[in-house]
Write a structure and sequence with these properties.
Blueprint (H helix, E strand, L loop, with lengths): L9 H5 L2 H13 L5 H19 L9 H14 L11 H20 L26 H17 L4 H9 L12
Length: about 180
């Protein structure tokens, strides 16, 4: 594959993705994020992004490289050693980091387009919602009465939950 570079700064030609992501993380994001968020970004960059894309020059980075990363992470990209891939939500979080970094690179003139704009993100998993039936509402009412006597939760919270379509996940009553 032959690359043609027109009107590029020398830094663009020689700058690797790993270098830019590290610079962006430390110089642009460290003081603008909470410490826990910055640590999370650092984990994504050092654990997922740099190992997959870091050896590419910034001007060579294409949508296909990023899409391949996402697909691989969905199929088996866990860093904790467990079987299987990352959840769509985790891959979307990696995308948030990549997109933000490459948007800054575009602002700096290192890229003319953000290659992460064109990727196809995985759909988020929809969880089934189970609502309380009449028996569940009765059980909720019984539990509510016991807890109200102990002063743990006011009566109106349970009524509102039951009338508003409470889900089975109300574990405080053993539902």
């Amino acid at each position: 594959m032959r690359y043609v570079y027109y009107n590029l700064r020398i830094t663009q030609i020689y700058l690797y993705v790993a270098e830019w992501f590290t610079t962006w993380l430390n110089d642009y994001m460290k003081l603008s994020l909470r410490a826990t968020t910055w640590e999370s970004y650092k984990y994504q960059v050092n654990g997922h992004i740099i190992p997959a894309l870091g050896n590419l020059k910034i001007v060579q980075l294409q949508t296909a490289h990023i899409q391949r990363l996402y697909n691989e992470k969905l199929q088996g990209g866990r860093l904790d050693g467990k079987e299987g891939g990352l959840t769509p939500k985790s891959v979307r979080y990696i995308h948030t980091v990549i997109h933000s970094c490459l948007a800054q690179a575009k602002k700096e003139g290192l890229l003319t387009v953000n290659p992460s704009d064109a990727v196809r993100l995985p759909k988020l998993e929809q969880k089934d919602i189970h609502y309380l039936d009449k028996d569940g509402i009765k059980l909720l009412g019984d539990c509510q009465g016991e807890q109200a006597l102990r002063g743990l939760l006011p009566d109106t919270k349970y009524r509102f939950a039951a009338w508003g379509g409470a889900r089975v996940a109300l574990g405080s009553c053993g539902l």
